[in-house]
Amino acid sequence: MRLSRFFIDAPLSLGQHELPEAQAHYIGRVLRHSVGDAVQLFDGSGQEYLGELIEVGKKNVRVELREQFDGLAESPLRIHLGQGLSRGERMDWAIQKATELGVAEITPIVSERCEVRLKDERADKRLAHWRQIAISACEQCGRSVLPLIHPPVALGEWLETTGAELRLVLHPVAEPLASHARPTTLAFLIGPEGGLSDAEVDQAKAAGYHAARLGPRVLRTETAPVVALSVAQQLWGDF
């Protein structure tokens, strides 16, 4: 039986802990765990904790953590993904898969051809939703550190503030990724559903970005980060 693993948004240590209400409900009411069941918890610090459920009620769950150990090491390649803001499940998919593939930071980018506009309360709700997607992906894939999910920003702001040793913008007419030397930090810019305009690609190049391609076919906005991150991790990361 697979050991249940959960993220706890609070510092953990050895000993007894009462779990937050949301996790308590999920463990006790949804998964129907009982006293004596083993669990594995992590708090995003890079440490993992093994323990046992010592109390399982309708609204409260207590666990005793008895073993602490180093979690899965992060990739030596720190990647910041600038993902063009897209609709619903496409953005969710991109964030989920980017998390599984070891990205360190994700920033949704508002560009000329974006079909989505988020403001105020709706933007806050989407950011919380994306963060939960990243948490669930970390729980599933074994990562012990959560990627940072930034609020959406305009393309120009991202280009001005995001620095990395190697900065790439995906474009169908460009050099392949393998033509670049191995970096330790990488910024990837990927357009929305309609792609980046030629003017935006030129704007990125003026900000120090190199145009890079992933092959002869044009990929969907939710497919491109999966392929780009996989290739980058194979070339320079931990694949």
TrEMBL record:
Its EC number is 2.1.1.193. Pfam families: Methyltrans_RNA, PUA_4. CDD domains: RsmE-like. Its main location: cytoplasm. Residues 19-65 form the Ribosomal RNA small subunit methyltransferase E PUA-like domain. Residues 74-233 form the Ribosomal RNA small subunit methyltransferase E methyltransferase domain. The keyword Methyltransferase applies. Keywords: Cytoplasm, Methyltransferase, rRNA processing, S-adenosyl-L-methionine, Transferase. GO terms for molecular function: methyltransferase activity. It catalyses: uridine(1498) in 16S rRNA + S-adenosyl-L-methionine = N(3)-methyluridine(1498) in 16S rRNA + S-adenosyl-L-homocysteine + H(+). One of its GO terms (biological process) is methylation. It comes from the Bacteria. It is found in: Cytoplasm. The keyword Cytoplasm applies. Specifically methylates the N3 position of the uracil ring of uridine 1498 (m3U1498) in 16S rRNA. Acts on the fully assembled 30S ribosomal subunit. Belongs to the RNA methyltransferase RsmE family. This is Ribosomal RNA small subunit methyltransferase E.
